[in-house]
Amino acid sequence: MSSLTTKVCVVGDFAVGKTSVVERFVNNHFSDKYLTTVGVKIDTKQIQLGRENVSVKLIIWDVAGAEQFGAREFAYLRGAAGFVYVADGTRSQTLTSARKLRQQIEERYGARPDVLLLNKSDLPTLWQIADETIQSLGDEFGKVYRTSAKTGDDVEAALIALAEAIVAKDLQR
Ligand code: G3D
Ligand code: MG
Predict the structure, then answer these.
(1) From ligand 1's centre to the CA of 123, what distance in Å?
(2) In sequence order, what are the beta bridge partners of 62?
(3) Fewest CB within 10 angstroms: 59, 62, 114, 172, which?
(4) Which residues line ligand 1 (CB under 6 A)?
(5) For residue 125, what are the domain limits?
(6) How many domains does the chain have?
(7) Which of 120, 112, 118, 111 lies closest to 149 in space, CA to CA?
């Protein structure tokens, strides 16, 4: 078994659920009492990828939301091996923000493995993103998941998919 430590950054608009998704993944817990993250919050989580027989320590940077990243936010992203883009499925403009951010980040740091989380899937009656849109997003982002930090749905699957993509890229070098 080989091991690897890797930095991933979680980015997206205000209140899409970035901090909640990380809390769910790291501590398997959901709380609706978060304060807006100031600047950046860093957590770590060790996972085993059975297929690749690799142990991965993810260092997860939860970067506070902004539609347009400034110099400080971009500095936080330096050295990231992969990105978790988060949008709120009940607010379609947050998907536009995630796509813009992805473009900006790619221009600056080059292409990196990524996943898109359309979060708050536990709120189907408020959902604003059509299935066809979700399918076409698969051409843009590495993988797309409908997640819920509240129920835990697909949060772990999404983060594991990202870790697998990072490991696959690492093994190519
Ligand atoms: P952010 O870190 O992207 O800014 P937060 O977002 O994790 O702080 O979440 C913003 C709000 O969305 C919080 O509610 C949080 O409880 C809620 N939220 C996050 N993920 C989900 C989810 O999957 N489902 C539902 N229903 N709500 C979610 P408040 O009320 O504290 O603003
Ligand atoms: Mg936050």
Answers:
(1) 12
(2) 10, 41
(3) 172
(4) 14-20, 32, 34, 36-37, 65, 119-120, 122-123, 148-150
(5) 2-172
(6) 1
(7) 120
